[in-house]
C-alpha cells in the first residue's frame, strides 16, 4: 500500500506543472461522479502556484511580491509593471526564483532519490546541488558525472603507456624500463649490471640488451655461449685433418705434408729429412735502407755453435738434438728448441750464413720484450719501441720481436701498406673461386665441378657425386648443379638424395651439402632442425643447499626442450625456512597441462604441496614453503614449448626453531 502510494505521489509530482495551469473547476470535473474529495494545501499545494494557506473555506492561494493572483485564484503570473522595471540581471533572478519555487513544489531533496544526483548531493536554500569527485566532471544537466579521460591530454603526463581508470589513470612502462617514484617517468633498466645476464659480453640498449660471444663460440638461448664446432661444416676448411678445440679449431696434415701459411692447406714437405740428416736453414731476405734484411727460421731441433767474431753457425733438423745446456767457456751454446727466428743485417761469407750477435734460448725461455707490441708491429731493441712491420712482412701475434716475410717478397708490387697483421694483408691473394700453388697471384679459376668459398687457397673443393658446376670459378656448393634442391633441415648427399639433418645439427638454408653442429652441449629435440634456436641445453636439476639460489627451466631464457624432466631438492641449513619468488612463468596453455611445475615436501604425491601450475602467469608471486625441505619437479611433453621460468629463493631463520619437518 505504501509503495503504491509513493508511486502515485511521484506521478502526481511529475504532472503538477500541467495541473497548475488548469482551473480548479476542471479538476473537480475530472475527478468524475461522486462526492469530491476534500482539497487541502497538503495535497498538491492546494492547487496554488506559489503559497497556499488552509482556511475554513478551503485552500487560499497567494503570490510572491513580483506576481499577482490570477482570476482563477490559483495561478501567479508576473506583474506587468514589475516586468518593465526589472533589468536583465534581475530578470534572471526572477527566473531562478521560479526554478527554486518549482523545486520546492516538486519536493526535490537529497533524501529522495539522492536529489537526482549521479554522485554527491547537497541540500541548499535554493534546492539540491550535485557535485562530482576528483576525476569526474558535472554534465550540463547538473546531475550526471562523467569520467575524465586524463590520457587524452598529453598522455596523462606518462612517459610511455597511459591507462584510463574510473576517476583516475595509471602510467606504466614498456618492457625493459622501470617506473620511477613520480609514477609517470620511465627509466631504462641496465640488464648488463645484473649478474648472470650473459655468459660472455653484454651490450645494454634502451629497453633491451644483447649478448655476444667470444670468437669461437656461438650464441644460443639468447644469453648463453657454446663452443662452435667449426669442423662440422666443410671440415672447417681444412684440406686434410680438422681438430675442434674449445673456442677454436686446428687444421693438421698427414705424414709427409706440412701446413700451408694459410693454416688450412697441406703442401708436400720439401726434401723430407732422413733420420740424423740436417736440412738447410730457411733464409729469406729483403732489401731495405741501410742493408739487406734477413729472416732465418728452423722448424725442428736446432744446434748453434760459436764462430769467429761472435757469429754462429746453424744446424737444423737433428733427429736427436742435444739436451739444453749453457757453457760459458769456449763461447759455444746449444739448446733444444722447436724453432728459432731472428732478423739481422747480414753478409754472406763463402756461402756460410752468419748471424751476428744472435743469442740462442730454449723454447719458452726467450726473454719477452719490455713492451708488448700489438699485432702488425714488432719490438726494436735498438730503438726500444714498437715498429710497424715494413712492406713485404706481417705479424699476426702480439709481443713479437720480428715480422714474418710475406710469401711473395720478390713481388713488392702486390704488397699492401705497412702494419700487416695477417698474411692475407700481404696482398695478391687468390679470391674465392680461385686457387694457385701458394694462394697468391697469379691465380686460376676453380674448374667445373669444384668450388672454393675462401681466399688464399691452394685447391678447390669437389662437388662430389660427379656433379658439375654452373660456371668456372664457383664459390659455394650451391653453384653445383644438384639433381634435387634440398630444403632447410636437410643436406645433399653424393648419392643425390636429401637427408634430414641428424639430431644435434641444423641447416637453415636451401641447397646445402652439410648440417651445422649445435654449439656446446646443446642438441635438438628431433632431427631435421632448421634453426639455431632449436638447439637447446637440456641440463637441469640438482641438490641445492645454499642460503640463496635459483632454479630455472633448461635452456632458459630460450624455449625449454621437449620431454624434459628436471628435479631439484632445496635442503637449507638447520632451522631455516625457504622463501620462493616466482616473478613470471611461461607454459603453453594449449598443451592441456602437458608441461607443469610442482613444489612439495617430498616426491610423494601425498606430501604437502606448496606450489603447482601448468599455466602462464606474468604477475609475480611469493610464498613460504610449507616444509623446511622443498622437492621441485618440472616436466615437459613433446608438444609445444615456451620460455619457462627462472625462480629465485632465499632461506631465513625460523623464529619458531625446532627440528626439520
TrEMBL record:
Location within or outside the cell:
Secreted
Tell me the InterPro entries matching this sequence: CUB_dom, EGF, EGF-like_Ca-bd_dom, EGF-type_Asp/Asn_hydroxyl_site, EGF_Ca-bd_CS, Growth_fac_rcpt_cys_sf, NOTCH1_EGF-like, SCUB_EGF-like_domain
Query: Which keywords belong to this entry?
Result: Calcium, Disulfide bond, EGF-like domain, Glycoprotein, Repeat, Secreted, Signal
Enumerate the spans annotated as EGF-like domain: 188-226, 227-267
Q: List the disulfide bonds.
A: 192-202
Q: Which GO terms describe its molecular function?
A: calcium ion binding
Q: Which GO terms describe its cellular component?
A: extracellular region
* Transmembrane domains' residue ranges: none
Q: Region entry Disordered: which residue ranges?
A: 317-336
Q: Matching Pfam families, A to Z? A: CUB, EGF_CA, Ephrin_rec_like, FXa_inhibition
CDD domains listed in its UniProt record:
CUB (cd00041)
Protein name stated in the entry: Signal peptide, CUB and EGF-like domain-containing protein 2 isoform X1
Species source reads Sus scrofa
